[in-house]
Amino acid sequence: MKKNKRTRRFSAGKLLVYIFLSIASILSLFPFYWMFVMATRPSSAFNSIPPTITPGNMLVENFNKVLNSIDFFGSMWNSFVICIIVTVVVLFISSLAGYAFAKFSFRGKNVLFIAILLTMIIPPQLGLIPQYFLISNAGLLDTLPGVMVLFFLNPLGIFLMRQYISKSVPDELMEAAKLDGCSNFRIYRSIVVPIILPAFATLGIIVFTAVWGEFLWQFTVLRDPENYTIQVALAQLSNTRDVDFGMIMSGVFWATVPLLVVFLFFNKLFISSITEGSVK
C-alpha cells in the first residue's frame, strides 16, 4: 500500500511538472508562431482587432517583396561569415584564457580575472564612440573585420571556460602528461579540448546567437549595402513612409530560421559531447 501511495504521488508530481513545462514551451514558442502568421498576412493584419492567429497565404508574396527591397541572401552570408569567425575565435581565446586562469599560477592572476569580469557590467553603449574612432583609425570602417574584431574577447566565455576547466580537468592527468614530456599547448590540445567539448558547444550557442542578433555596432560601422549584415539589411525595410509589416515580418521570419537550425545542431552536439566526454 505504501509503495502504491508513493507511486501515485510521484506520478502526480511528474504530471504537474510535465504540464508546467508544456505550458512554458507553448508560451515560449508563441512569439515565433505569431511572427510566422504575420509573415503570411498583409500589413493590415498587424493591428487587427481581435488579433489574427491563423496563417494566411501571402508568405511567398511577402518574401518576394523582401528580395526586391534588399540583398537578403548576401546579407545572410555576411552574417554567417561574421558569426562563424567570431565563434571560432572566441572559443579558441576563451578556452586558452580559461585554461591559464584555471591551471596556472602567476602574479596578479586573481586581479586580472576580476578585472575581466568587471568589464561585463559596463554597458556596451558607453564604449561606442571610442570604439568607432579606434576602428576608423585602423582603417577597418565599413568592413566585416571591423565588425568582428570587437567580439573576439568575450569575458563571459573566459569565465565559463575557467569554471569548467577547473572542475573537469584533473590536475593528476596534467601532471602525468608533463612527466611524459608534453608541452602546455599539447596538453591543451590533446587533453583539455576533448574534455571541454560540452563547454565549447554551450559557449558556441551563446556567442553565435548573440552576434547574430547584435545590431547597434553593425549599424554604426557598416555603410556599404554590400557589407550589410542581415540585421542592418532588415532595418532598411522600415525606412519608407508606408511600412509594410507583412514584408518586415517575412524577412525577420526567414532570417530566424537559420538561427534555429544552428541552435538545434549545436544542441545535439552538446548532448553527444556530454556522453562522449563522460566515456573518455
In whole angstroms, how far apart are the ends? 44 Å
The name CATH uses for the topology of the domain at 70-239 is MetI-like fold
Shape: globular
CATH architecture of the domain at 70-239: Orthogonal Bundle
What name goes with the CATH superfamily of the domain at 70-239? MetI-like
| Major pleated sheet | none
Oligomer: single chain
Structural class: mainly alpha
Radius of gyration: 24 Å
Helix content: over 70%
Mean pLDDT: 84
Low-confidence stretches: 276-280
CATH class of the domain at 70-239: Mainly Alpha
How many beta-strand elements? 0
Number of helices: 13
What does this structure look like?
Residues 76-266 form the ABC transmembrane type-1 domain. It comes from Pradoshia eiseniae. Belongs to the binding-protein-dependent transport system permease family. The protein has a domain at 70-239: MetI-like fold, CATH 1.10.3720. The protein is built from 13 helices and no strands. The longest helix has 38 residues, at 2-39. With 280 residues, the chain is an all-alpha fold. The protein is globular and about 70 Å long. The chain has helices at 2-39, 59-69, 72-103, 109-118, 128-137, 144-148, 155-168, 171-179, 184-195, 197-213, 216-221, 230-235, 245-279. The two termini are 44 Å apart.
